Amino acid sequence: MLACAFLCMMEGAGSAASLHRPPADASVYAAAEGEDVSYSEWTIHVTSTHPNYTLGKIEPVRGAYLGAYVLQNPLIHNSMAEFNQATGKTHASFFKYVGYGEPFPSEWVKEVKAEGAFPHIAWEPNHGLAEVKDDAYLHGFADAAREANVPLFLRFASEMNGTWTNYSGDPDLYIKTWRMVHDIFEKRAPKTAMVWTVLNVPERPIEAYYPGDDYVDWVGLNIYNVRYHNGDIRQPSEFEDPLQMIDYVYNRFSRTKPIQLSEFGVTHFTTTDGIKDIEYAASKIKRLYANLPELYPRVKAVFYFDVNNITEQNETRRINDYSITNEQQLKDVYQQAISSSYYLSSLSEEAGGTRAKVTQPFTYRGHVFEQDGELYVDQAFFSQILQADVEMLEDGTVQLSRWDGEMVRVARVPFLPHKIWSGYKINGLFPLWREINALPLLTVSQELGYQINWNGIHIYIQE
Questions:
Q1: CB neighbours of 292 closer than 8 A, spacing ≥ 6?
Q2: Edge-to-edge strands of the sheet including 397-404?
Q3: I need a surface site. Which of 183, 198, 221, 231 has the fewest CB within 10 A?
Q4: Which residues have a Cβ under 8 Å from the Cβ of 107 and sit 6 or more positions away?
Q5: Ramachandran bin of 231, using left for φ above 0, alpha for ψ from -120 to 50, beta for the remaining angles
Q6: In this predicted model, what pLDDT tens digit does every residue of 125-148 receive, in sequence order?
Q7: Spatial distance between the Cα atoms of 306 and 71, rounded to a whole number of angstroms
């Protein structure tokens, strides 16, 4: 978790602006002597020789759906076809914002299908959760989704972890409402995949809003790389790494759910300093798309946000230009980044069938460190990725157990309290830390009966 709760967002698509607010004594979050404010590039790869995962709705066995948002880009006439042509590759999915209470966008869905793609709807109860009821409107929206006769992503009430949405602040009501909506669509529009999407920050509230594995088909994440937060030159953020911004949500949910980058955008011009920085945007785009296949194989869809916010009607968002279609160099960079066959241009053949049991690779990113010749990792790796039972004992040690065939294997070790940099800084200055219970990675893995080896910063574990 972040070391403190703070109001933070990168201004983007469907969110109002909010501010970073430092704690009363922000200096307490500065790095102590000897503490490293850098990104740990370790990757733990977990593989299996047998089926170890049940596919989610619309989920491809391998690869990631290529997606985009183009409906606020007049340069390409808000056209999916023109975007595909400009970027040199057909995209598998496009999304549209729909306010709760508005009709199902049937005509737009037909246009998406005509482009050989499938739709992604960001459905936003902007007047609060009280308007979401088990009524004729909700049932009618679900029936229209069924009648569209196409698999679709339904991203309901996203970014609830921030205070800028009118449906945040009450996790219990949010979960109750989400489950009701899920159950109605499961019954009336079973081709719909419900996508539960958060913004990458703030992290602390995220867990409280999760409706549970039985009620979520995909876990989504919105990330934006900006050079300054909130248009404030005193809050530099160019150091933020798009991979590190994924890690918290990815590590927590990717063992049980496909991960979707519901929105990804990078600025190449900001009104904050008036400087065009094509290289900044190019480097972030290259880093993300180049590393997803090997380091984040559970990211199964990624949607680029192709919008110049500076020309938008909402004056509070006229800060960053995320568009890639108005700069030839960025078009070339993006075209190269998505050229791999790993990025899918159409619905996977598996998506329309049964939710099959398959073999999947899993990874755990960052949060590994070395101390006194021993590698340590957050105990969450063992509970979330390896799915071991973890118990804190009265003597302060941690007991881990798992079934290995017909026998139970047990490891019992002391934990090491440790702080790891979250990748964020309050006001661009003061590092924020995650406090973890670190366990000796090799010792615990071997005692639990796993085969483990490593090569540089890559650690390999076979289940």
A1: 64, 299, 302, 342
A2: 389-392, 397-404, 407-414
A3: 183
A4: none
A5: left
A6: 999 999 999 999 999 999 999 999
A7: 9
